[in-house]
């Protein structure tokens, strides 16, 4: 797949541990040490209690599809070669939700509450993306 024309993620000081983890094929999320809430997407403070006492933890990588859409038309775009593809909100076992792609299955086979697990797509030495596939039984 040619990723040279696709946009790459923006990395800053508070998202760097997430992207480093993904590069090592670990799905990292944050957890507030004050209120105990899991947090995703990466932030500088807890959105629940506003504490800046946040730590990183490795997520299980397992979850269920909360909602999804099949993208069949997206022109003009650098994603035309990928169509059709699935964009989904995945609710991880830890309780956070993550927007990602569903891969390794036909788009029409995807359904809400489908069990999924993380997989990693290496774009380059610098970037790897977390995506989800149907969970192996």
How many domains, as an integer?
A: 1
Structural class: mainly beta
Taking strands numbered 1, 2, ... along the chain, how are they ordered across the largest sheet? 6-5-4-7-8
User: Cα distance, first to last residue?
Assistant: 28 Å
Mean pLDDT across every amino acid position: 94
Tell me the helix content: under 10%
Radius of gyration: 16 Å
Q: Mind describing the biggest β-sheet? A: 5 strands, antiparallel
Please tally the β strands and state the result.
8
Rough outline: globular
Discrete helix count: 1
Order of helices and strands: HEEEEEEEE
Unreliable stretches: none
Q: Which strand-content bin applies to the residues?
A: 35-45%
Question: Outline of this structure?
Answer:
The chain is mainly beta. The chain has 1 helix and 8 strands, in the order αββββββββ.
Could you please describe the fold and organization of this structure?
- The protein is mainly β and 137 residues long.
- It has one domain.
- It contains one helix and eight strands.
- It has one helix at 16-23; strands at residues 28-32, 38-39, 54-58, 62-71, 85-92, 97-102, 115-122, 128-134.
- The protein has a five-stranded antiparallel beta sheet.
- Strand 1 and strand 2 (38-39) form a beta hairpin.
- The two termini are 28 Å apart.
- The mean pLDDT is 94.
């Amino acid at each position: 797949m040619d990723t040279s024309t696709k946009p790459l993620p923006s990395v800053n000081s508070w998202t760097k541990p997430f992207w480093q983890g993904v590069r090592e094929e670990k799905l990292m999320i944050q957890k507030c040490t004050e209120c105990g809430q899991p947090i995703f997407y990466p932030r500088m403070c807890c959105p629940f209690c506003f504490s800046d006492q946040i730590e990183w933890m490795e997520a299980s990588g397992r979850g269920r599809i909360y909602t999804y859409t099949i993208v069949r038309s997206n022109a003009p775009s650098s994603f035309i070669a990928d169509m059709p593809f699935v964009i989904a909100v995945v609710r991880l076992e830890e309780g956070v939700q993550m927007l990602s792609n569903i891969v390794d299955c036909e788009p029409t086979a995807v359904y809400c509450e489908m069990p999924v697990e993380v997989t990693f797509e290496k774009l380059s030495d610098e970037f790897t993306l977390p995506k989800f596939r149907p969970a192996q039984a």
